[in-house]
Amino acid sequence: MILGIPKETNDRRVAFAPATLAKAVKDLGIECWLESGAGLAASFPDGAYSEVAKVVTRAELFQHSDIVVSINPIPESEWKLLKKEAIVISRFESYMKPEVVGKLQEAGLRAFGLDMVPRTTLAQSMDVLSSLASISGYKAVLLATHYFPRYFPMLITPAGSVKPSTVLVLGAGVAGLQAIATAKRLGAIVEASDPRLAVKEEVESLGGKFILVEGAKDDSGAGGYAVEQSEDFLQRQRVEVQARAAKADVIITTAQVRGKKAPMLLPAETVNQMKPGSVIIDLAASTGGNCELTQDGKVISHNGVTIVGNSDLSQELPQDASFLFGNNVLNFMKLFVKKGELAIDESNVIIQQSFITAGVTA
Ligand code: NAD
User: Fold this and answer.
1) Among 3, 45, 86, 204, which lies 20 to 30 A Cα-Cα from 261?
2) What are the pLDDT digits (tens) for 9-35?
3) What is the pLDDT of residues 82-120, one digit of tens each?
4) Which residues contact 127 (CB under 8 A, 6 or more apart)?
5) Quick check: CB of 257 below 6 Å from ligand 1?
6) How far is the CA of 224 from the centre of ligand 1 (A)?
7) Are 167 and 197 in contact (CB under 8 A)?
8) In CATH, what class is 129-315?
9) Where are the CATH 3.40.50.720 domain residues in the chain?
């Protein structure tokens, strides 16, 4: 059985780092092929894979691979180049675009959606969303330090004292918690808001102050994800946020509701009250943004406030993003590849949720 790793399109990451591919060969009993140049932008040249993988062209890889793993789905125009009934493993976003499942089935492919793996303790080691979100949260803070014209920590120097900066984090999921931890490590004062009360303790254990907004909807049936809040709740939250935004130096926004438009938490009116030099990093940019003024994929300046719209900052740490993504996928593949053979147990709950084309098996 051949596992193929293609080069990503417009992405510096690669699905497997060399060390993880070596483990895949050993633990899964498979052969690995890599498209030439696939790891280069993540600082893994072809030579780093030479002992564990056969380096081939894209056409050869598609023609011979039984399983193809990629961070972003292979472009639809190339599906016909794959083997019939090949297994493709990627983030298909089928929760937002259910039509992708029918298209994959029509193309005769069997697909596992990495973004459908349940967010449970059992599946934690397979959770690519957490690995990538955590990197994004870390990088969001570093990016903020790049645009922010002041220090984060308090400093007492012979030339005078510098006050610590205040960082406000909206959304304390995986990315938000990593942003809180990173900003604290850099010496900032951190505040955070999230409708899920369950994260209050986590925010506080990282040294952040939790901003409580009463009356959030119960999310216990949403598989760990947040539910859409009422307009009344969001309005009260915006008032709480506005009071703090005026004093904040940096705002990192990560608030998302899976499969829905991101909640708008920072209207233009709030940004207008922020201090010149302040920075907003909007990680929810691709789903509409948490700030009304965010432009996805752009850095803009509004009355002296820098607003960065970028939902995929894990691309900016491509080597570790690739390493962690591959480790997650290897743990996931151990569920259904044993001694070089496929053994898909459809009664396994992780398989049930992620095998999005189930029913078209050979
Ligand atoms: P996400 O990216 O879907 O959302 C980010 C955060 O935005 C969430 O914390 C959400 O509550 C918050 N949010 C939504 N509306 C908001 C609003 N109006 N204001 C402020 N914040 C708002 O979340 P994620 O980081 O992918 O995590 C999703 C869930 O999965 C979380 O509950 C997380 O704890 C859970 N999880 C569990 C595991 C595990 O047990 N293995 C692993 C990872 C994540």
Assistant:
1) 204
2) 999 999 999 999 999 999 999 999 999
3) 999 999 999 999 999 999 999 999 999 999 999 999 999
4) 117, 119, 328
5) yes
6) 7
7) no
8) alpha beta
9) 2-116+317-354, 129-315
